[in-house]
Automatic annotation (TrEMBL):
UniProt entry tagged with the keyword Hydrolase: no
Family listed: Belongs to the SMC family. SMC5 subfamily.
InterPro entries: P-loop_NTPase, RecF/RecN/SMC_N
Identification of the protein by name: Structural maintenance of chromosomes protein 5
Bias (Polar residues): 74-83
Entry coiled-coil feature ranges: 412-453, 756-814, 877-911, 984-1046
UniProt keyword annotation of Cytoplasm present: no
Domain RecF/RecN/SMC N-terminal: 119-1170
Region (Disordered): 1-110
Keywords noted in UniProt: Coiled coil
Organism: Agaricus bisporus var. burnettii
GO biological process: double-strand break repair via homologous recombination
Entry GO MF terms: single-stranded DNA binding
Amino acid sequence: MARRLQVTESDDDDIVPESKGKHAVKQEKRRTRAKIRVQNEEEEEEEQPPPPPGVEQDDEQISRGSKRRRINGDGNSVPSRAVSQEAEGEDEEIVGSQAPKVEVKTQPRDTDGYIPGSIVRIKLENFVTYDAVEFRPGPYLNMIIGPNGTGKSSIACAICLGLNFPPSVLGRASEIKAFVKLGKEEGFIEIELKAPKGQRNLVIRRIIRADKKTFFTLNGKSTSGAEIRNKVAELNVQVGNLCTFLPQDKVSSFAAMSPQELLKETQLAAGDSRLTSWHSQLIKSGKEIRELKLNQNTDEAAKNQAQQRVDMMEHTVRLFNERRELEKQQAVLQCVIEVERYRVVQLRYMSVKAQHRALNEVVRKLKDKNEPVRKHLENLRVQSAQWSEEVNLGHETQRKRVAKFSNLNGQLEDLGEEIDTTYQKLEALEKEEENRLKNMRKLESDVQATEDELKKPPPKTEDPVILKAEEDQAQSDKFNLDQRHGDLKNEFKRHFDGRARASTELEHAEARIKSFDDTDTIKLQNMLRWSRDTHDAILWLREHKHLFKMEVMEPPYMCMTVPDKRYQDAVESLINSAQLRSFVAQCKEDVNLLNQSINDSPGLGRKAKIVTWYRDFDEQQLASPPVSHEEMRALGFDGYALEYVDYPEGLRWFLRRECNFHRNAITLNPQGVNLTYAMEAVGRQETGGGASFVCGNTLNIVQRSRYGSRALNNMTRDIPRARNLTVQTVDSEVRRQAEETVKRCQEALTYFDEERKTLDAKLEEIKDEDRLIEERLIGIKKRKDVIKDAHKSRVTLENRLKRLKGQLMSLKNQPSEESKKKKLNRELMQKNFQRADKVKEIITLMRSFVPEQEAFTLMKLKLMQTNANITALEKLVEEKDLKFKEAFDRYAELNERYLILKAEGQELLKKANDAVRNRTDPEVIAESDRVMEVRRVHHLELSEYEKQVEEAGGGPQGEEELRRQGIEKPGLGEDGQEGDLRSLEELEVACRTVEEQLEYNNNRDEGVVRSYEEKKALVESLTVAIEQRQQKIETIEAKIQRTQNQWEPALRVLIQQIREKFSDAFDRIGCAGDVELMSDPDYAQWRVDIRVKFRDHEKLQLLTGQRQSGGERSLTTILYLMSLTSLAHTPFSLVDEINQGMDKRAERTVHNSMVDVTCNEDSSQYFLITPKLLPDLKYHPRMKVLCINNGEWLPENVSGNMKTMLRMYVASHTAA
């Protein structure tokens, strides 16, 4: 019975395909061919058009040969006809003629079989494992074999380093000195390269030393490394290309090579030699055109923006220009108005000035005519003034005499009153004597009584010394008691302080024990240690909730809990620390206010940074759960993370939108979940293409690749124990210490209560003693007061006696009544004499007053007569000067007008001069000068005309006379001057009109005009730049199109050839492989994808450095390199131990295929390094086997010839 081909992986990544019966294989091939024929016929009947060029195809569209079976991504067969149709469709799009199939021809081969650049000879000395060796490889396949460690890979190193390629190509030592054999100071590599036909071969020697120094010689002459590189490059040697030179340590690098790098290396290794330069040109031009288009878009956006600004500012600029014109008109009008105002006032001034001079002459003449009368009147006024002064002096003299008379009369009256008083004293003198005697008798009686009282013995009292001793003792007892009281107060203070400390400590300890059970307090304390800014922001938010439009949610760490502690670890693994510390706002205004208050300003009293979050609520943007609840239960999950947390409603959108809690499934039982099914379920593309789920203690992050077949990837990591969503309980030791503090404080308070009773008793005892001492002191004081009162009473009697005696002595010493009478009589006589003298003075004064009064009266009469004369004369002058007064009044009025007009004219002249001087705008100066000149000429002509009218008789008759003479009144003048000859009122009206227009036009910002001009210039410059750049873009696009029309068809033909060879090679080993060229708008991203399939149940998968096993990667690598061999245009290629990890069947197939490919007549030189050989391998006469026999011991020379033996072996097997 036939067995299916199955591919399994061994522990060492070797591919071990199971055998398959030949009969079954033939039957399967026949069935496959039948299917292909049927499918080809159906496709021919449908005549479907080929896909357009550049369109990527699925694995189902990958073609296969009509005679060989190829497996696509789904494991189905498709005919190779699709490939030809695709190629034909692409070729039709090429501008110009259809690109021919690329035929790569090697350089002319010499008669010895070598092509230029092939290695003719290699010689090594003191290199790695070799002391000295020299050998000559053949022009075709060279199979280098030998045991491990003998130096096979050293030959690859020698070729690389000898041709001056860097050690990094080998993937081994990075320094050249490492390749000198151990213990040696110097070695060399000598390689002889085949030169073009008719030229001398190139013998390159590289000397390497242990001190890092290296030297080159070319054909025996010293040369530089750069010259060696140039010579090697001329021969197209590509040691740095993994497609042509694959060292042992770089096998894995080929699979890890990016598809873009693979395309570049493939172009270098095979196909048209211009492919690489075309591709480089396309990449360079593509980058250049992207930059140009980016700059073009930027400039177009800038141009559009500038044009919009120009359009927006155009109206404003027009208004600004209008305002400028109005301002010029205003400036001209203001200047002309100021000059016209001065001219008008000046005309009025000149007219008034003429009148002023005429009236002044009239006033002067009238004044001269009345001058004699005025002089006589003035003399009378002077005489009247003199006599008025004399009368005033007389009045003053009379006033002084009256005052003196009044003074003497007053003195006379005072002396009369004094005389009356003296008479009254004489009458009262007798009564005063009686009272004095009466008082003397009373004082004598009081003195006697006081002396009798003093003679009595004093009352008996205590000894003051004894009483003082008792008082001192009581004070001493009081002092000692006060000291005891003070000590007791200190004890009370100590008691109260200790009790307060114990009470405070008890309250703190009890509050602390209470806080141990307060979750919010514990979380706040934890947050303070975690993030001080977040902790302070939480406290700030609680105090300022009223500032926000909606509720701002505190961080999930504070307000979210996991009731079922079994799910705490899983839930915490799905949310990161930043999300746990995020403040969640429910509207845009609140998140802006929160950021402004804390992140943007020191709202916490310092600079702080917190995490804030807000997103617009939109269910359509939210990815749905990957599976329904029923399917989730069927998969073995308990539920989604959102179901296991308690949270405020305002946090729900954050947990779904930011944390995906509604998409992350959790199970505590990992054995009940099939991870493969779970990955496929959560990775469905229609539900987002990926999610996370927790299975036991493992977090699985499932993502779908963005490229290729978009395969699922699953990253796993162990989840740690939850730290944040579990409120940490207080350490038992901390709680025990707090409880001990409470107990100690309670015992201390009990002690203080007992101590208080003792202190209160001591205080009462001191108070009782204090009362007794106070009573003693009060008694002593009363006894002292008795002694003091007795002493005070005697002292009072002594003082009273002394005072009474003094009063009695004073009364006795007073003068007698007779002496007083005599004294009073003398005073009375003296005052009478004085009174008589005053009477005499009054009589004398009255006698001298009469003649002076007569003279004074006569002077007053003269004054009255003079004043009467003055009055009569003034009346006469007034009558005569009436005309003068009227003329003078007119003159005064006119003089006032004259002065006003003169001052006004001076002020207007200054303003006019200022207006003329202050002109700065040339246009305003020119226009205002023109207008003022026109007006000046017009007014001169008008003035001349008016003079002529006056000479002709004046008035209408004068004008009529001038008209008869042919003289007309000057008019408005030439056309266009009407506005220049307007009156002052018309000019002022026009100026106000302009000012009103300016009030409505506020566009006075010159910056807008400058910006307008700048933007307009920018639009023009950008327009030119855009047009020039567009021309450049079109030129480059045409260049890109021409280059792509050359490059893409040739490249696609090359890839198609590689694809066919690669697929055929995989078909021969019972697997499937495909090579596809993937296009991209960015030419740097064009790539070659290698997809392989080694098992029936698999699909074609992209070759990567991680997906396939080591053996699979090695097999894919060598088959791809073999596909390039017949297309390569390099002089030689090399692969080192590519068969590592292959099973025997694959290794045999690969070997035989390599012999067929590399021993072809047109093949270039090839090096195959392998450590092992299978029996019954295929050999070819053109191949050369190099056996390395390297070691410390070599066998002795014996009879026999190895070459002869090999030739005989090959001949026998070839004949067979």
